[in-house]
Every structure is written in C-alpha cells, then in structure tokens.
C-alpha cells in the first residue's frame, strides 16, 4: 500500500478527494492548515472528515497567512461577498494570496519526509469562484516543480499532484461521494458561518454547494441536522 498526503479542509471537495484516494488503495496522511481563517468551524469539520475517511495520521499545522495583511475576506474583517452571481472570470475577495501554493508546498515537504510521491488536493475548475490556484495549469506547473525541487524527484521518482475533482461539476462530485458512501453532513463549506457554526446560505461557497446538491437531486444532509 502506497502513502499519500491529502489536503483536508473539512469541505465536501477535499472529503471526496480523500475518499477517492482511499478507494485507490492509498494509505492517507491528512494535512489541515490553520492559516488565519476567521472561523474555526471548518477545522472541526476536518477532524470529523479525517476520522470518517480513516486517515493514518491527521496533522493540523499553523501557518498564519493573515500575518501578511492584505484584503482577503477570509483572513480579515472585510465582508464576505454574498448574493452575487458566480463569475469565474473574476477573482473575489475570498481569494487568499498564494494559499494553494503554500498548502501544496507544505504537503510536498511532508510527502518527501514520508517517502511518498503522491499528493491529493480537492480543487475544482468548473463550479468555483475563479481562484487562479485552482486551475489545471497551476496543478500541472506545481507537479513539474515538485519533481525539480525534491531529492526524490531528482533521484528519478515522479512526484504526482492528484486533483481528481478538477473537471467535475459540483453535482458530479456529490454523486461520486455519495456512491462512495460519504456522509456530507460532516462537512462544512460556508465562508461566513454564524456564531453557532451554521452556514449563511448566501456566500459563493454556500451557493455552489446548494446548487450542486439540487442538480444532483440529493438533499444536503448538513441542512437536515
């Protein structure tokens, strides 16, 4: 059985990507980042998801990207955009500068320490908000970098960045996860939950999630609890 590092946020995409990796026979090492996001609900969800998918180890790492400043509405007090049409041609304020680049670099470091050559990330380039670090070109470029930047890669091993959801719609992701028996009631997607951790239902992430479940013809179990 081969080892793989999987980035786990507690959202339905990363949960599905982790389950797909497990179904392929990988032993999973899950990495969750506390990057200065202004709510902890997704961290709680990541712990539940890690337990559900049966990871070998779940590492929570502090890398406070909010220390750099900037205007991301996920790491500052700037308001999260709500009730807007999703436009993937623009970059919304919920984009955190270089977040996936940092996350993948840390995943790569852990993978190399484990002697693993596989990393899974749940990015999606169809139903998403237009983040530049979710695009196929970015994943392909980072995979090339991974083989150039590591002792394993220089030694001839192929470092692989798996993005199995990249070309799936949100509905297709949900159907895939449901077929794998996933409990999406464990997951959290909202960018701006209330003090009790309940989703706002109006941010981009809530909008995409709601539309995905509707298109899949499946009730969102997170709303039934």
Structural summary, described in words:
This protein is α/β, with parallel strands linked by helices and 225 residues long. The chain has one domain (3-223): Rossmann fold. The protein contains seven helices and five strands, in the order E-H-E-H-E-H-E-H-H-E-H-H. It has helices at 12-23, 41-53, 99-114, 136-149, 151-154, 170-179, 204-216; strands at residues 3-7, 27-34, 57-62, 118-120, 160-162. The protein has a five-stranded parallel β-sheet, sandwiched between helices. Helix 1 (12-23) packs parallel to helix 2 (41-53). It is globular. The model has no long low-confidence stretch (mean pLDDT 94).
Number of strands: 5
So what's the CATH class? Alpha Beta
Structural class: alpha/beta
In whole angstroms, the N-to-C terminal distance is: 36 Å
Strand order of the largest sheet: 3-2-1-4-5
**Main β-sheet description:** 5 strands, parallel
Average pLDDT, all residues:
94
CATH architecture classification? 3-Layer(aba) Sandwich
What are the key terms here?
225 residues, alpha/beta, Rossmann fold, 5 strands
Quick structural gist:
This protein has 225 residues and is of the alpha/beta class. It has 7 helices and 5 strands; from the N terminus they run βαβαβαβααβαα.
Set out the fold topology.
Elements: E1 3-7, H1 12-23, E2 27-34, H2 41-53, E3 57-62, H3 99-114, E4 118-120, H4 136-149, H5 151-154, E5 160-162, H6 170-179, H7 204-216
Parallel strand pairs: 1-2, 1-4, 2-3, 4-5
Helix pairs in contact: 1-2, 1-6, 6-7
